[in-house]
Amino acid sequence: MDLIKQLGTLALASRLKRLSDHLMSDVDRLYREQKVVFHPRWFPVAYLLDRKSPMAITAIADTLGMTHPAVNQTAGQMSHYGLLVSSTDKKDERRRLLALSQKGRATVKALEPLWRLIKESTEEVLLKAGHDLIVTVTAIENELQKESIYHRVSARLFQDFHSRLKIVEYEPDYKKYFRKLNYEWLEKYFEVENRDDKILSNPEKHVIRHGGKILFALLDDAIVGTGALIRHDDRIYEIAKMAVTEKVQGKHIGQNLVQALLDEAKKLGAKEVIIATSAKLKAAVSLYSKLGFTRIKKPFYYPYDFKRKTIFMKVKIIQ
Q: Does residue 82 sit in helix, strand or coil?
């Protein structure tokens, strides 16, 4: 049983790595039998520098589609065996230029006949396999340049996650979660002040009955986030008591809650929505800015003073 084969596309990277290792091993054996000190992984850099020298490491990496550290590692190994020499770019002393040494050029020349045979033998394998692997690999690379596997999988994970997420309105049974989630972050970053405790202990009195709203984020029916929309007057509302449990932070739940609260504010006829937050909460400030909030001075109508250092942000609501 060959599990890698059975796994098919799930193990494509592992299978290609195995194939690469097999080919590299054969070529390495040929080099050793020819009594040449050369590693198969050095081939792209050696081949390039034989035709164009000197070159900066960044230019080599860009030309070969390799990472800067990978080129650095290869250069270090080749230099150790006397195949490369380096120099400083006269136009920019920060740039390091690489070139084949005399020994390096002699090694490349000695290997060229062997490389021709390797090329012919590889083409023979591809011909007998009945597929033009080079064309297929090129097509795969082109597709990955358009969108990587990372971004494709991340998009699917995002869609799956948010299909499980629901934003719901306040119910008496949710009261304890409003308090619990807010206490969780307040105790982590600041302290729970009297004004906080009043709202969190009796949200019906201080938010709902004054014409405000409280929303909750449910993930697989578990409450993971909350936020309140507090009414100051018919035109001005405040988003407050935003909290998302730590284990699901960074998954755009806060963004969904803020957007839902802004939608509620619009339904209620708000002209502007303010937020009192802290510069310490950089992720939150960044989110609010992304959603159109801008920094303002403390509004004259804002009645509370907290011990924690507070900044204010505002967004206008277009009806």
A: coil
Number of neighbouring beta carbons within 10 Å of residue 53: 15
Best CA proximity match to 287, nearest among 263, 256, 260: 256
The letter for the amino acid at 117 is L
Residues 6 or more apart whose Cβ sits within 8 Å of residue 224: 217, 218, 244, 245, 247, 248, 253
DSSP 3-state of 159 = helix
Q: How far apart are CA 254 and CA 287, in angstroms?
A: 8
The model's pTM is 0.64
Ordered by where they begin, the domains of the chain are 34-129 (1.10.10.10), 161-316 (3.40.630.30)
Q: What is the pLDDT of residues 251-261, one digit of tens each?
A: 889 999 999 99
Answer whether 207's CB lies under 8 Å from 199's CB.
Answer: yes
For residues 237 and 288, the answer to whether their CB atoms sit within 8 Å is no
